[in-house]
Amino acid sequence: MDVLYERGEVERILTAYKDIFPSIGTSLSKYWGLSRERPWSYVTTDFHRATYEQLKLLHDRTRAIDAMGLPTNEKGVALRDASAACGVGFSMGICPWTDHLLLKTYSPEKKSLTILLGHDWYPIVVENRERSDSPLRNGDALHYTPKYMPAAPPAIFDGSTVGLFLNLYPDYRPPGDGKCGALHTYGITYKECLDGLDEVVEATSARFQTVRVISWGANVWTAMRARVRNAPPLTLMGYAKGRPGEILTFESAGKEIEYLPIAHPSHPGNFHQAAHLSHVSLGFEAMGLGLPEKSTTN
């Protein structure tokens, strides 16, 4: 059975988004796909317009679609159509993990923001998974996924920094597509994704005194390197082993942002390698974010 956000929690999450992003300009709206011009840009929601009633309606329609037993592609289209009809996406803002992190970590007086930057969300329909995403489902998030915890600093879990989870590619993958790997022809390029990230950095820097980025995985590192000052000509793991804990400078929106690339926690073994664990620990400490959780295979 789903555990759903209560109305009061929804209002807190929507308020947090609106505090961080007082307006959604044309460029940010385009990056997040709010006009739905890209075929699977249905993760996101315009949180300035969304209501609890819309989100609950999409939740109910999603569970009804889940019960139909549709083939993968048909189910993807049905979910997309339901989202369009309800006027909201499958999160309250950027993605479900962002929603939950804001509920857990946001308060108006906080001045520090840590962006956890992944590569992309799953396909809108994941084969062999019965339940689809729901904008109201409270139960599939960083705090509930032990294998991801070592890749997030303790300062996020104890709430001393606001945590903002983003995927560089903001849309779903097509129904039935693989869960990971580089982007193909999905309607947006890596350059456009980096331009969109610039818009996020610009907006959040107006709200927070400190904005830092921790990226997960080699695909994001490869995309980000073009904007990193004096980027080492190394693979991600080569950088972690050769320059452990070194904080890089990501140049974004005319600003210099502290940046730490680390391996993705979803791949077995990444957080059982001593050299990489040392890199993560030293990097988190250098950013003033504490020591990482112990790795787990759960």
From TrEMBL:
The protein's name in its UniProt record: Uncharacterized protein
Annotated source species: Ralstonia insidiosa
